[in-house]
Amino acid sequence: LHKEYRRQRQMCIRDSNINKGAFSSPYASADVGNEASTPGYSAATFGDKTNMFATAGYIGPPGAQHNQIERMSKTSPHAGTDVANAVRDDRGQTGGSASTTHGYTFGGEPDISDIEKFQMSATNDASDVAELATNTNGGCVGEQASSPSSGYAIGGSNPSPAGINVIQKYSFSADQDATDVGDLTAARYGIGHAYY
Predict the structure, then answer these.
(1) Sheet holding 143-146: strands in order across?
(2) Which has the closest alpha carbon to 19: 74, 62, 65?
(3) Looking at residues 162-167, what average pLDDT do you find?
(4) Rounded CA gap, 139 and 144, in Å?
(5) CB-side exposure of 151: number of CA atoms within 13 Å?
(6) Which residues contact 96 (CB under 8 A, 6 or more apart)?
(7) Is-contact 124 72, C-beta < 8 A?
(8) Which is it for strands 194-195 and 143-146: parallel, antiparallel or unpaired?
(9) Which terminus of the chain has a lower count of CB atoms within 10 Å, N or C?
């Protein structure tokens, strides 16, 4: 289940529009009228109590990869600001998660295994801090989840388009490589997000 502050609203970035929707009925989303700093798609998205972040992905159209870390306030105005840079600018589709203090971006196309970390309250660039146990070939196809102490890379596409069934866990308290902690019942990709 989502923590209390994450249940309040969800913000989605599609092209350069920022939409938000409630986690309670009637579940309708609305264009809040502000724009992300750069139109894009397939970014890793996550947040803390006050901001949402989008890292890496594609700038589109025409679909060039980038390394922007963009921050958007959860309160009005919702306009996006490019606040820092990821280490890599060639991730394409990517996954990510967040502790209470740091954002994490992992995987990517083609066959990228890096895990990058940045402090969400600052505007410092990300650092490469660890490696996945198995390449996920992208976050839109290798999904992310988090608990209070760990991030997870679940499934993925390696090699594309075949799915993988690996569940990988990385610690928020220590910069260590991810470990294979389990398997899905079937190889999957594009399965959604979960946060505890």
Answers:
(1) 179-188, 163-171, 150-157, 143-146, 194-195
(2) 74
(3) 80
(4) 7
(5) 34
(6) 44, 45, 46, 53, 55, 103, 104, 105, 106, 139, 144, 151
(7) no
(8) parallel
(9) N
Q: Give the burial string for 138-147 (b: 16+ CB within 10 Å, else e).
A: bbbbbbbbbe
Beta strands 29-41 and 10-21 are antiparallel
Single-letter amino acid, residue 194: A
- Tokens for 185? 């019942």
- Classify the C-alpha dihedral 6-27-167-94 as positive or negative: negative
Burial class (CB in 10 A: 0-12, 13-18, 19+), 123: middle
- pTM of the complete model: 0.77
Distance CA 60, CA 133 (A): 30
Question: Nearest Cα to 17, choosing from 1, 38, 3?
Answer: 38
Interval 134-157: pLDDT, tens: 876 644 445 677 888 999 888 877
